[in-house]
Amino acid sequence: MITQNHQLTCQKEQFSLPAHLHYINCATRGPFSRAAEEAGIEAIRRQTNPFGLTAAHFFAQPEPVRQLFSRLINNPDPDRIAIIPSVSYGMGVVARNLHRKPGIARGQEIVLLDAEFPSDVYAWDRVCAELGLTVRTVPMPTQLPRGAAWNERLLDAIGPQTALVVAPPTHWMYGIRVDLEAVARRTREVGAWLAIDGTQAVGAMPFDLEKIQPDALICAGYKWLMGPYSTGLAYYGEAFDNGVPLEESWMARLESDQFHKLSEYQPAYRPKAYRYNVGEQSHFIHMPMLEAALTQLLEWQPVRIEQYGRDLMAEAIPQLQAVGCGVEETSWRTHHLLGIWLPDSADPIGIQQALLANNVSISVRGRAIRVAPHVYNDADDVAVFVDTLVRQL
């Protein structure tokens, strides 16, 4: 057990990644740890013989996950956590309930950052048409450093005309930080809602829900939460109490755990976020895996995962800048997800292919390459990445 006071060391032995591969790409897909892998295998074994399965099993399965995720984000009320299949589902809940926001009026705006992830953009087309709203996109500055100016632009865009702000802790392509505490203060001042897509941050850097107080926090589970694909988690605050769910799951209703009474149809929902759970939320294979992953993240601690990434990339960044790459200034970049802008003469896809040929996995996003280290990476992974990239440039 790693204690609070100890610096996190490389955890490569906790994963089954082949030694010759340099996977610096957790922002695309987090690999399963051995603990999550074993939990999944054991869960499959249990499903080969469902004898003895009771109503209680259907409802008990997600509870540890709600509690662990609540600890991870400093949420005092696990009943506000919903099990969702995707970010699009979680944002769909926000869109479905936007008409219930006090003071909503035609002509108001939904504020987004430039080049946001598609699930955070497509969610608003229909509700904008229905409610007469418009989307206001905050453009990214054209020159580095971008972080301070982009955050200032975001705050300036939030005003009395704002109905909803959708923002991440860090931009999914470039790793530029968003000052969510400042954004949250501004949204409260103007009476807007704040929905956060925490997919590319929660689990890899500290997130304090009590300080930020968003109306919704939505996370896919397969990246920095290190869980299975098609399972995620969402927090819905008081603004969503008594709201409209995306689907009418029988499990969302009161007394739904009493199987002998299921045909005595119940109009009342379970409290708080339960109505927003995806149908079949029990996920008898996924939930044990996500529970194991969250348990491990809490042991590692996001603050130390963040510091591990910072230390791991510390020598690489000046080497990359020396060959013409652009990197955001330290105070406005994250350390688990780095956007590295290539020189204009470079071919991003060609560089990605050269890296793959040398067993290095990163992502290309626009004119930048996205490097996303985690605790299974070590100095050798970074050295192979830097040496290959420098040779190509």
From TrEMBL:
InterPro entries: Aminotrans_V_dom (IPR000192), PyrdxlP-dep_Trfase (IPR015424), PyrdxlP-dep_Trfase_major (IPR015421), PyrdxlP-dep_Trfase_small (IPR015422). Coiled coil: none annotated. The lineage of its organism: Bacteria, Pseudomonadati, Bacteroidota, Cytophagia, Cytophagales. This is Aminotransferase class V-fold PLP-dependent enzyme. The keyword Lipoprotein does not apply. It comes from the Bacteria. Residues 57-324 form the Aminotransferase class V domain. Keywords: Aminotransferase, Pyridoxal phosphate, Transferase.
